[in-house]
Amino acid sequence: MPLPPIYFAAVSSRTMSRKSKAEQREAAERRRQLGGYSDAEFDSALARSQNSDAFSVGVRLITLAAVFWLMARAIQIHGVPAWLLVLPMVVEFIVIFWVGYFLSRFLIDCKAFAQSAGSLGLTLTWTIILLIGVLAAAAFDPQSEDLRSAHIATGLVSGWQQVRNAGLHWVILVSMLGLLISTTFEVLRWRRLRGVFVWTSIMHTGFRLGVMFVLGIFATVALILLGDFLASALSDWRQLAGPAIAWAVFGFLLLSEFLTVIISALMHREALKKHGPRAATTS
Question: What kind and span of H or E run contains 258?
Answer without folding.
Answer: helix 237-275
